């Protein structure tokens, strides 16, 4: 039970609901002890709930692309607008491209995939430039908590991992890519260990592992609950030690540059906030720009980094590269809805695994807490929107309770602190005692399942252009399993770097860097009568009352569009 | 929706301007709501990247505090300085270890200034992550890389400690080097991983993949549904499935 002082930390309007949660807790714990659980949905009900309430299926949430290489493909509306947008005026008015910088391999994006690619290309003897929109390392990589899946223990194998990945992706994955992903897992793990990345280990050196959603073997390796942060800072530290890697922070790619034969030969970079554009010529280019969480698909909050605005998809699509598997976005069912300082961030599935239940504002259960992610997401939205049983937040959002204190009653005092040391400390620091205080949660936009199609060597449809990480599609099919993103960025990041290095060595310098692909795209827009006043890539999301002059989404913002990560 | 009258507000000062903002906001969201747009000084918005470090004072309190803007709630009378960029001292190294050196001396030789620590405790007092920074500086000094790794493990490299250090130590970078050298040269290496790699390099799974890749989707689904699940309480390396055809 909360002390009255703890109760006072919640806004007044939430307190009656909290009291109901506390009142029903002992009965719910007793029911769990008797082996009772809330009934899970039948497959028919699951489908019905998904179709009615999952954001992927909501009416008007997706639309078919009207132009470009993947015309007819359904994608979230927010993404469609960017993919059918126009280049910046400053780009359209460029008469002649003055190359300011020449390099062997240009890597666009300074997250996990881009940094791995840069390291591989530099170690293959090439000069590398990492152009990154924010600081080096600013990315979703460093936000990953869960871990990295690798089949390395005796009961496991790449074959078993392969099967798990395909099933998780509803058998829509590119099997060549999956085979590489799982087979190279152990190699990548050893590489990370040799780079001085810390892993949770037993005293013998054997790695500690646990299950993730959809795994048949315990193969999630971790570094506390900051696995991504540890991986990113090690990659970055290593990259900084290589003299042939130069990093250009706060420089975002706003267009690819191509030569007369359609080969990628560089990019136009914009110094963020400075309205200055520079051309970089390269013998090969790696695209590693990450995902689209900050587009706030259907106004959802997101667990993503500030810079996750789909820039790479936009410039690649304009250059004629086909996309795949963007119909389904991954929503994590339990993002934080309150306290506001954590809005949209994840409350890991493990809390529910240990018995924390989802409750509506009356303190009642409304769904079995461990349904698949998409089903739980649909159930929470149904409870809040259809039945108005959500709990209101001060900023007029909604959420349902995740009754974490139950864990202490079910598994004994001290369990929460033992199982979630990082989270426990972090919340305690904010005055939230997870042992006694439930958290308010609501689904959050988590991952872009698809993206640019790639080949097993991380190549794309364009000669000289390679891609890796969240910007690509195929590895995860329509749904990614927890722990496979950190693996993917390493495996395919390194592939992209090696392939780009090889291409640059073999092909040498390309032709004169130009923008002829833009002319083709603009005339496609014209021919299909697509009128757009959207300019992209948008680089950063626009929060607050004043339209941010550098973001491209002009004149299309709905009134009171709630983009600070709250559900409206 | 609350009417304007019922919204509780506080006054905060940023860049010499005072703003009236609702309580229940982080410093970051409050400033964005009044129309300030950040390029620098914002990152993950989740308290793990260290991009949004601020120094602040509240009212007439003499204490200077550090925080992450995306995590800290607004307080009445808060006066805020964001730290967009910090000139860091970072000693290049290749994670190599010459025969004449030990990992702990290697780290100490790269960051000898840790010896100048005057133990004022300012770094520990300021750290927004609650890390005992002075504690791990002492460990680096004494050659305890394992201790320094553990204590600095959740460091987000926000640089608040380095900014205020009277001995001009670059604590986050010394800690980074300590962690890598400890993990590389002192922590036990994973032997089971070598076995897994040997099997991959000897192409032990190639036939298995050919077999899997020949299956049609129904057969693959059936195989998927028949998977045995490793028990959650199994100690790694002890449990084996009944069906070993996939191993």
Whole-number mean pLDDT of chain A: 91
List low-confidence stretches of chain A: 546-568
State which percent range the strand residues of chain B make up.
Answer: 5-15%
In spatial order, strands of the major sheet of chain B run: 2-1-5-3-4
Please give the CATH architecture of the largest domain in chain B: Orthogonal Bundle
Tertiary shape of chain A:
globular
**Rounded Rg of chain A:** 24 Å
SSE class of chain A: alpha/beta
Contiguous helical run count of chain B:
10
Could you tell me how far the N terminus lies from the C terminus of chain B, measured between alpha carbons in angstroms?
58 Å
Helix content of chain B: 25-40%
Average pLDDT over all residues of chain B: 93
Task: Provide a descriptive summary of the structure in words.
- The complex is a heterodimer of chains A (568) and B (247).
- Chain A has helices at residues 4-8, 15-33, 43-53, 77-83, 89-92, 112-123, 158-168, 175-183, 185-194, 227-240, 311-318, 350-353, 373-386, 406-411, 415-419, 421-429, 484-507, 516-527; strands at 62-64, 74-76, 99-108, 128-132, 148-149, 209-210, 220-221, 245-249, 251-258, 264-271, 276-287, 323-324, 329-338, 357-359, 391-392, 398-403, 439-448, 451-453, 465-467, 472-473.
- Chain A is an alpha/beta fold and 568 residues long.
- In chain A, strands 3, 4, 8, 9, 10, 11 and 19 form a seven-stranded mixed beta sheet that branches.
- In chain A, a hairpin with a 4-residue loop joins strand 10 (264-271) and strand 11 (276-287).
- The longest helix of chain A has 24 residues, at 484-507.
- The two termini of chain A are 30 Å apart.
- The radius of gyration of chain B is 26 Å and the shape is flat.
- Chain B has two domains: 9-82, Beta-grasp domain (Ubiquitin-like (UB roll), Roll), CATH 3.10.20; 86-210, Orthogonal Bundle (Fumarate Reductase Iron-sulfur Protein, Chain B, domain 2).
- The model of chain B has no long low-confidence stretch (mean pLDDT 93).
- Chain B has ten helices and five strands, in the order E-E-H-E-E-E-H-H-H-H-H-H-H-H-H.
- With 247 residues, chain B is α+β, with helices and mostly antiparallel strands.
- Chain B has helices at 27-33, 103-110, 122-126, 133-142, 145-152, 160-164, 171-185, 191-201, 206-214, 217-225, and strands at residues 9-14, 17-22, 53-58, 65-68, 78-82.
- In chain B, helix 4 packs antiparallel against helix 5.
- In chain B, strand 3 (53-58) and strand 4 (65-68) form a beta hairpin.
- The longest helix of chain B has 15 residues, at 171-185.
- In chain B, strands 2-1-5-3-4 form a five-stranded mixed beta sheet, covered by helices on one side.
- The interface between A and B is large, with 91 and 81 residues.
